[in-house]
Design goal:
The protein has a single domain, classed as Oxidized Rhodanese, domain 1 (3-Layer(aba) Sandwich). The chain has four helices and five strands. The chain has a five-stranded parallel β-sheet with strand order 1-5-4-2-3. 36% of the residues are buried.
Length: 104
Amino acid sequence: MLIEEISVQDLHALGTDVTLIDVREADEWEFARVGHARHIPLSTVPDHLDAFSGEPTYVMCKVGGRSLRACEYAAAHGKQVVNVTGGILAWLAADYDVDRGSDV
């Protein structure tokens, strides 16, 4: 199954009016996250397919591997998804804004 991909630069250019899901674990989410992202750990994706409601839904993780697996699962269930290549590490390297800690 071929999954569409997007760079963090192109995702950033889309602004905050997109559906973005972060599938990293809770401790990774606490460390740094994109402000408008929704946290759904990879292991819980099957229970939260309704969250993949964007047209498309963008999915990120640390570098792109787990988000690709989440995309493959969601796509197999009829969802339109795009994998964010480079993940949060690429987002941080590009020096884009992030939220940190549990103050959300």
